[in-house]
Design brief:
The chain is mostly helical and about 200 residues long. The protein has one domain (about 50-195). It contains 12 helices and no strands. The longest helix is centred in the middle third of the chain and has 18 residues, at about 100-115. Residues about 10-25, about 25-45 and about 190-195 have low confidence and may be disordered.
Length: about 200
């Protein structure tokens, strides 16, 4: 730790100049084919977000309680991808759960699917958006970031919102802006007009 502190405060004269290619072009100017593309608005398009999210364990995503994760694991549902592709009626019947469980499983499934469709979104954030009636990428894209953030804050102070949030933080306005931008540019790369 001391070494890194000394590196921060030491003069930078001892640093080498960056290497260049054979033609004398600095490496940061050379186009590298393996780089992640950026859309025109500067938002990172993460091609692996969907695969990463669907491979995560439910317990790590904290989309449901530890007890619910244990129940689902008993029936072979371990990852978010497992839950996103399950038949809710069959799973509820196999679990011996009441009819209400079908709706709960459908809500979990919808949150995972929405989060997998929007780069940078997690299922817990998607659950909040679904509760404020933003069920799809299109619904998020048609909304303005400030209106969406305002609705999230309003929901957070309601009794259902407090119960759902349970002491965690709301997504920031910057994160909401990134979601809206990603939803608007998804697929075509063309910016949609926001609803006034």
């Amino acid at each position: 730790m001391l070494r890194s502190l000394l590196r921060l405060i030491s003069p930078t004269d001892h640093l080498e100049t960056p290497p260049t290619s054979e033609q004398g072009i600095p490496p940061e100017v050379v186009d590298h084919p393996a780089t992640i593309p950026m859309n025109p608005r500067g938002v990172h398009i993460d091609a692996n977000h969907r695969e990463w999210l669907l491979s995560k364990r439910l317990l790590h995503l904290k989309i449901c309680s530890q007890q619910r994760c244990d129940q689902l694991r008993h029936f072979g549902i371990v990852t978010a991808g497992d839950l996103a592709n399950v038949d809710p009626v069959k799973l509820a019947r196999d679990m011996g759960a009441p009819e209400k469980a079908v709706q709960v499983i459908k809500r979990y499934r919808a949150a995972i699917r929405l989060a997998a469709s929007v780069p940078g979104m997690m299922p817990r954030d998607a659950q909040l958006l679904i509760r404020i009636h933003r069920h799809s990428v299109r619904a998020i894209a048609l909304d303005s970031p400030s209106a969406l953030y305002h609705d999230l804050r309003r929901f957070a102070v309601s009794s259902k919102g407090r119960r759902m949030i349970r002491g965690r933080r709301l997504p920031s306005l910057r994160k909401v802006k990134n979601w809206v931008t990603a939803c608007r540019t998804q697929g075509t790369g063309i910016q949609l007009r926001s609803a006034a």
